[in-house]
Amino acid sequence: MPTADGTPAGAPDATVPGPDEFEADRPDATPAGSGVHGFGAAGSAPAGPLADAPEPHRVLAGETVFRGTVWEVRRERVAYGDGTLTREFVRHPGAVGVLALDDRDRVALVHQYRHPVRARLWELPAGLLDVPGEAPLEAARRELAEEAELEAEDWEPLIDLFTTPGGSDERLRLYRATGLRHRVTDFERTGEERDMGLVWRPFAAVRDAVLAHRLHNPTLVVGVLAETARRARS
What we know:
Blueprint: H1 19-23, E1 59-67, E2 72-80, E3 83-91, E4 95-100, E5 106-114, E6 119-123, E7 126-128, H2 136-148, E8 150-162, E9 171-182, E10 198-202, H3 203-211, H4 218-233
Parallel strand pairs: 4-9
Antiparallel strand pairs: 1-2, 2-3, 4-7, 5-6, 5-10, 8-9
């Protein structure tokens, strides 16, 4: 049965990247469905890799209660256990971010005003998956060129996350980019991007600023901590 806005109940939204679009360029991806779900009678988890796993539930009814310039808010009633749940959440196209490191171990940062928090934040180059058919890696290349006028020789998936899974379906992939060089672009920045600028800071200084609670953009914080863990494991 279709939902209130004509979408078949339980059908995925074609505008939201599915897991395969993110997993395609990740060499150590865990196969879908191989994660752990639930607990046994003794309270111990089944054997297997520690991994989140897809768990679709039948959508009984749904409607778009708000449609904005970038994202929308959905209300859905879902079959769950012996009853139903009604939840509202932000439907998001997904995003990518880039931790770009030069040969002096400096991080490329932009300084952008964010109106919801009334602050100008230090951030990594990042952006939406809002070009139809564009893979996450290609989106990351585009964003690095548009926001930092850089291109990179070497790309590596750094970390994946759902930014706010209790209230949004936004999925973010962060890449580590090295072998940088300047790239001339004719991209015209608008809005808050017009005056964000680009600066370089030593990775250690950025890491210390994150741990000192002075930097708050989640893409930057997660990316820097993931790179710190990557170096520790190496």
